[in-house]
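pls read this stuff:
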Amino acid sequence: MSLGFRVGVPGMRVRVSTRGVRASVGPRIARVHVGTGRTRVSSGMGPFYASTALSRSRGVSRGRSSTTRSGGPSPTQLARAQRAAQRAQQEAERNAAIEQLRQLRRDTTRAHLERFAISSAPIIPPPPPIPAEAVRAQAYSIYQQGLGLFARKEKERARVQADAAVAAYVDSESRRLAGIHAELCDGADAWWTALCANDEQTVCDAVNAAFADNPAAGCAVGVDGASLSVIMRLQDLDTLPDQMPSTTAAGRPTLKAMPKRERMLWWMHILASNLAATVLEALATAPSITEVNAAVITRMPDTHRLGLVAYGSWSRTAIERGPWGCADDAWRILDIGTDVQCSIRTTASGNISSVVKPLPLDELPGVATLLANCDDDGDAALADLDADLASSTPVSEPDPPNPFRLAPFDHWLQTRAAPPPAAPPAPTPIRPAPIAEPTPSPTPVTATPQSPAPQSPAPRPPAPQHPVPVGDDLSAGQSVVIGDAAAIPLRITFTTAGADSDLVFLLLDRDDKVLDDNAMIFYNQPVGDGVTLISKQHTGSATVELAVVRPGEVGPSVAKVLVAASIDAASGATFDSLGLCHIRIGAENQCWSFTPSPEPQVRALILVEIYLYRPPDAGARWKLRALGQGWDDGLAALARAYGVNVDG
């Protein structure tokens, strides 16, 4: 029961209850409370108050006072909360490390579960349609340039001319793109035929391209009939973590040191998974290969030298017989092969050995030679594979060039507006001696007339005659006039025997420098302005590479197309040691051949040059000159000499 009422004393409030009577006097800011044996003074200005209680002990009254702080945690509470936060952070970091280790183990033992695409005959899509409306808008802008606003008749005449030019452009580009498409289809068919015939270079190139994104570096090194030999570089045992997930006695997750045998078992699972993936992908890439001979190498933990840890042979029938659906299926690869050997064995007690020792190389002399070269030569192929394992940064491949890139309409229009080349003098029955000519430095016409004349297909002038008879061989330094080179393609056939070589084209300006790095057309960049590498085939002991040069499409800034060849310096071969080195240039009913005689130790060789020659008394015309000049330092030295950035 509680009853409150006010009395007459100003500032006094009395509250009566069953527990006593309480009275308070004073304003709210400072008030005295009296009652039930306690007197308390509150200031009303902050978290402090004073309290005095009256009590009796042994007949003596004694006062007791206390001061209390209200609001905010105490230092003890703060320390306790900080320790709790630290424990929570440690637990979170530990749980993240545990999950990361578990994910790493899952990822490293599932390489064989990837679905590898089975090779099929390549299909070259047709060129895209030419955007005629966009070309027509550009043509109207060019043909109506400089015409007044009210020049109706002149504008109408310009539109008719522009429409005729657009129709001619679309027809010309359609025929050119159709020719490129046919050449690409021929090249694709030739590649597929070589792959199905188990051509060694074709199979190794295709398999190595497929191996490029594998977690374990692999390399196809040879083909013998229908058998493919592969080297696989396994990650080192020392790269695995030294901890593993576990639980405490109370059942809480924790990390503990990984025993040697558990670490070895994980490493062996990685070996089996990547070996199975390597064999599966090789068989999927090369459709006519029926057997894969694989050797696995790694760096020995004690000597830090590369050594052989496993090898064997696996047939397509054995690989395709069983399922590959879970991580543990990888262990089957060690049981279904022929002559399988592994340096990690099971002990007599049933445990896996904890020591890695290399296998003897008596039965694999090729692997022995490869390992010896890798240890002695830091630039060997396996050294690059070893370095790749230390880098997890993905390498972005540049987009391949578009073989169906359209010629700009304005450039095409300039070539049509140029006057036809003057006919050369009639041939003489006696072949003239080679004439030394200055290095041509032409500058094609780039200005567009404000009011161009109507463009109509003009009849092709009669085929010019040449000082060298059709089909004759050229000697070094000799030059000939090419016929209508701006309108017809030049087909290049380069044949060598004794070592593998590659064609290289450089598009040069009048200062004999490349326009940019895209002006070098070679095996890594097979298509450029006016130049296309078609195919490369190995027939018996000879290698034949085909290419096409269209001088009329190289661009107005190009004054010369340099045709060269290179030999890989790692092969040890040079052009003077080849049994055959021959280039043939054909154009409609004309063809020329050249067999260079290079100096010793030449690894990069300029075969011929196709250049635009502009004499003072005649129109510009394309010519061909045989050269045969070489570089001892190979392709890099040749490229640097003409301004190609090979170090960027």
Remarks:
- The longest strand covers residues 621-631.
